[in-house]
Automatic annotation (TrEMBL):
The keyword Metal-binding applies. The keyword Metal-binding applies. Keywords: Metal-binding. Coiled coil: none annotated. SUPFAM superfamilies: FAH. PANTHER family: FUMARYLACETOACETATE HYDROLASE DOMAIN-CONTAINING PROTEIN 2A (PTHR42796:SF4), FUMARYLACETOACETATE HYDROLASE DOMAIN-CONTAINING PROTEIN 2A-RELATED (PTHR42796). GO terms for biological process: oxaloacetate metabolic process. GO terms for molecular function: metal ion binding; oxaloacetate tautomerase activity. The gene is FAHD2A. InterPro entries: FAH (IPR051121), Fumarylacetoacetase-like_C (IPR011234), Fumarylacetoacetase_C_sf (IPR036663). It comes from Piliocolobus tephrosceles (Ugandan red Colobus). This is Fumarylacetoacetate hydrolase domain containing 2A. Residues 107-314 form the Fumarylacetoacetase-like C-terminal domain.
């Protein structure tokens, strides 16, 4: 991405924020690239909308991918804490390219119908058990990357979601122990091809959810101890500046702990795994008439305390 493009995104980012930028000592882990660096690096975002501290420059022994960083647990987290407390050089936001905070996870678990107000929007009962599906990891892109409209779909829709990132391996995890397995949270855009969800592929959801670029994530992995209450956060989506989704994560039917307990009955969670926890009301398909994304649209997905991701539709 050209520097001018990064500057435009920074301007849009600052304009988008309903919750003002506040430099903080919160742990906001990122993966990034910069022209003077070779390959992806790990960093710390210096507050929501701030610059980036290069963790690999602070300690060259640290891994350069988030998954490897999380696999090492407290050893690497303690290094990041020391870096956060030190007075280190900060790379200006305009000089870095943000990648998704997690790339190539073992799995991306998704939850359907997990907001009470989203169920009301569809006039369907609230599920008694979590509705689980998945996206392929190849759908993940960065927080400011483009979403590509596939020629195979004419009904591409938006969905802002709270994403949980796993930090510790586990199977058959009790709900009471679940948060010990969580590294933190980030913002997700669960882009969805509605025609492939409702009329194609036997109405199985996988293909309609997993086109390339259909899972923007970011901008940072905000560690769980930096989030006051993940189940009481404002969550919204804007398309071309118009608010289309506005709710609160307190509307979630099944909270993070319940989802981890439920899914871990079936699969082993690994560090870096991502759980998309569902979307609130306001998606395009249920509007009258339905509205879908078109070339040139800009989608901003924002969650209080976590940040905003901005994706141009091409």
């Amino acid at each position: 991405m050209l520097v001018s493009g990064r500057r435009r995104l920074l301007t849009a980012l600052l304009q988008a924020q309903k919750w003002p930028f506040q430099p903080s000592r919160d742990m906001r882990l990122v993966q990034f690239q910069a022209p003077h660096l070779v390959g992806p690096h790990l960093g710390l975002e210096t507050g929501n909308g701030g610059g980036v501290i290069n963790l690999n420059a602070f300690d060259p022994t640290l891994p350069k991918t988030m998954t490897q960083f999380l696999e090492q647990g407290e050893a690497t987290l303690s290094v990041a804490r020391r870096a956060l407390a030190a007075q280190l050089p900060v790379l200006p936001r305009s000089e870095v390219t943000f990648l998704a905070p997690v790339t190539r996870p073992d799995k991306v678990v998704c939850v359907g119908m997990n907001y009470v107000d989203h169920c009301k929007e569809q006039n369907v009962p609230v599920p008694k058990e979590p509705i689980i599906f998945s996206k392929f990891a190849s759908s993940i892109v960065g927080p400011y990357d483009e979403v590509v409209l596939p020629p195979e779909s004419q009904e591409v829709d938006w969905e802002v979601e709270l994403a949980v990132v796993i930090g510790k391996k586990g199977k058959h995890i009790k709900a009471t122990d679940a948060m010990a397995h969580v590294a933190g949270f980030t913002v997700a855009h669960d882009v969805s091809a509605r025609d492939w969800l409702t009329t194609r592929n036997g109405k199985q959801w996988l293909l309609g959810k997993t086109f390339d670029t259909f899972c923007p994530l970011g901008p940072a992995l905000v560690t769980k101890d930096s989030v006051a209450d993940p189940h009481n956060l404002k969550i919204c989506c804007r398309v071309n500046g118009e608010v289309v989704q506005s709710s609160n994560t307190n509307q979630m039917v099944f909270k993070t702990e319940d989802l981890i307990a439920w899914v871990s009955q079936f699969v082993t969670f690994h560090p870096g795994d991502v759980i998309l926890t569902g979307t609130p009301p306001g998606v395009g398909v249920f509007r009258k008439p339905p509205v879908f994304l078109r070339k040139g649209d800009e989608v901003q997905c924002e969650i209080e305390e976590l940040g905003v991701i901005i994706n141009k539709v091409v």
